[in-house]
Design goal:
Blueprint: E1 8-9, E2 20-28, E3 31-36, E4 39-44, E5 54-57, E6 61-64, E7 69-74, E8 80-83, E9 88-94, E10 100-113, E11 122-125, E12 129-133, E13 136-144, E14 152-160, E15 162-167, E16 180-183, E17 186-195, E18 198-207, H1 210-218, H2 237-278, H3 280-283, H4 293-319
Length: about 325
């Protein structure tokens, strides 16, 4: 089971020490667990559970499942963290300016951080690296890839601003753990190299690959941030209702978009099947004596209807600002 730490259930049993670290402003997918002081609560998004009854505090755990994406606004700032599906993320410390220390155990996260002043920093720590910023749009991946032999390696990418990255493995020497600064469009990647004593890690800088850009373009931020002035109070019920309605509307539009794309795909398949049926006599000589035209026409018409429906649905979504 994957564990993602970023908050807690803001229940009636909340104590003074449970000062909110953030509030969920967007959620989509199947569901996630919230673990607070050892107690696990499953939020079933597929069945309509309300994620906006949850305020997140330091030290809690959340398990995100397949196709589940959560956006958390850190109180009382407008800094936002987006947690991807199947991700394990922990809030260790937060401050009144939206900074803090966060831990990514596994998966993918992205953060939009306003400029921080003084000694305040926003840091994400993985099992092997620490990434620190004062204001930027950046993210971190901890994924077990085939080329690494199943070993979980860290990646830190930067879309805006700059990020300071440093290795944190216990077996890394001080000279090997020098800070690497990456700028917009760059990524630092942990790689393993063979040595006499075994394998060790190094950081290499490269351009952010298209697959990471594409992933976060598809799963871009969708929630609306709001002013959170008092970090010791939960959002007002009216604000929760508004956030809930916004998220529900976004989820409906996303479902409609996916349905339209699947309909268009089915239409293209039907058109291809029609062409295959129409020319089947030329492809398979034994079918030359059969009149396949009616079947081909039926496939063409069905495909055209499906494609037309898909296009109309997508145009309707586009005209509404999506």
């Amino acid at each position: 089971m994957l564990i993602f730490t970023v908050g807690s259930i803001f229940a009636q049993s909340q104590t003074v020490s449970d000062q909110p670290a953030g509030v969920i402003i967007y959620a989509e997918g199947t569901g996630f667990d919230v673990i607070h002081r050892g107690k696990i609560t499953f939020i079933d998004l597929a069945k309509g559970d309300d994620p906006f009854q949850i305020v997140l505090v330091k030290g809690d755990i959340v398990n995100t499942y397949d196709e589940t994406f959560i956006e958390v606004q850190l109180t009382p700032s407008q800094n936002t963290v987006k947690i991807s599906e199947n991700t394990s993320f922990t809030v260790k410390e937060t401050d009144s300016a939206g900074g803090g220390n966060f831990e990514l155990n596994y998966g993918r996260v992205r953060a939009k951080v306003s400029k921080l002043f003084g000694s305040r920093k926003f840091q994400i720590t993985s099992p092997s690296v620490i990434a620190g910023v004062r204001g930027t749009d950046f993210g971190c991946n901890v994924i077990a890839r085939k080329e690494s032999g199943g070993v979980q390696l860290s990646e830190v990418f930067c879309f805006e601003g700059s990020v300071a990255v440093q290795l944190t493995r216990a077996d890394i020497t001080e000279s090997e753990s020098e800070e690497v600064i990456i700028k917009a469009g760059e990524m630092v990647k942990e790689e393993q190299i063979a040595e006499d004593k075994g394998k060790s890690s190094i950081l290499t800088v490269q351009t952010v690959p298209p697959e990471i850009k594409s992933y976060w373009e598809i799963h871009d931020f969708k929630g609306s941030t709001r002013t959170l002035e008092n970090k010791e109070e939960a959002p007002a019920p009216g604000a929760l209702d508004q956030l809930k309605a916004q998220s529900a509307a976004m989820q409906r539009k996303e479902k409609l978009k996916k349905a339209a794309l699947w309909t268009g795909t089915a239409g293209l398949v039907a058109e291809a099947a029609g062409a295959l049926i129409f020319f089947s006599g030329e492809i398979i000589p034994s079918l030359q004596h059969y009149d396949t035209t009616p079947y081909a026409q039926a496939a063409f018409i069905s495909g055209g209807i499906l494609i037309g429906s898909s296009i109309l649905s997508l145009l309707g979504l586009a005209s509404s600002g999506n």
